Amino acid sequence: MKVYETATAPNPRRVRMFLAEKGLIEHVEFVQIDLQKGENLTPEFTARNPMRKVPVLELSDGTCISETMAICRYFEEAYPESPKLLGETPLEKAEIEQWLRWIEFYMAMPTGMAFQHTSGYFKDRMNCFPEWGEDCKYATERFFEFLNKHLQDRQFICHERLSAADLNAFAIVQFARVVKVRIQPTQSHLQAWHDRLAARASAQV
Q: Which of 85, 41, 21, 33 is nearest to 58 (CA)?
């Protein structure tokens, strides 16, 4: 199996951390795609993912799966003996999914838009609106505060054990540094959670 990724991007990191926590990272070959050079825009890559985004999982039979959580779902189902990161009971699965969507819509997407619209990284292929990027940055800051309050009496985001929600949130919190959004001194609960995640081996992949 191959995962086409850009190592510095947050979504591929979410997949790598997921695989590391499940003990599956050695099962995969990682192929680097240079986004700034437009390697994701080539006909070869477009054939794997018509949305031209990373990461993409390519199975041994040539089947390709795009989208971060779709890839994670594949590994969760294909390797049932590995640690469950998307929940075990119907309630756990639903609540983790709820958090994954909140993290995606209210933190990952604003952070990504802040980066794209304020950095000019993709200015050769998109219209940039810096004011919109700044507004997105503010949305990310608000979600940081929301997470800080939520984590006041919790070790992990839900069910008092590690889940994909923690991995996704951690990757985005770290990536947010590129748009100068950082955990504030007043956000001690978020900082403690971040430090717990940073100490795990999966944070090093």
A: 33
Q: Enter the pTM of the model.
A: 0.95
What does the pLDDT read at residue 185?
A: 98
The domains located in the chain, with CATH, are 2-78 (3.40.30.10), 90-204 (1.20.1050.10)
Cα–Cα distance measured from residue 95 to residue 154, given in angstroms and rounded to the nearest whole number: 15
Q: Which amino acid is at 163?
A: S
170-185: per-residue pLDDT in tens? Answer: 999 999 999 999 999 9
Dihedral sign computed on CA atoms, order 92, 93, 96, 102: negative
Place 62 in a pLDDT band, splitting at 50, 70 and 90: very high
Query: How many CA within 13 A on the CB side of residue 115?
Result: 17
User: 106 falls in which pLDDT band (50, 70, 90)?
Assistant: very high
| pLDDT, the chain, mean | 97
User: Based on the number of CB atoms within 10 Å of its own CB, is 17 exposed (0-12), middle (13-18) or buried (19 or more)?
Assistant: buried
Long-range contacts formed by 11-15: CB under 8 A, 24+ apart: 11/53, 11/54, 11/55, 11/68, 11/108, 11/171, 12/54, 12/55, 12/68, 13/171, 13/175, 13/205, 14/68, 14/72, 14/167, 14/168, 14/171, 15/55, 15/57, 15/68, 15/71, 15/72
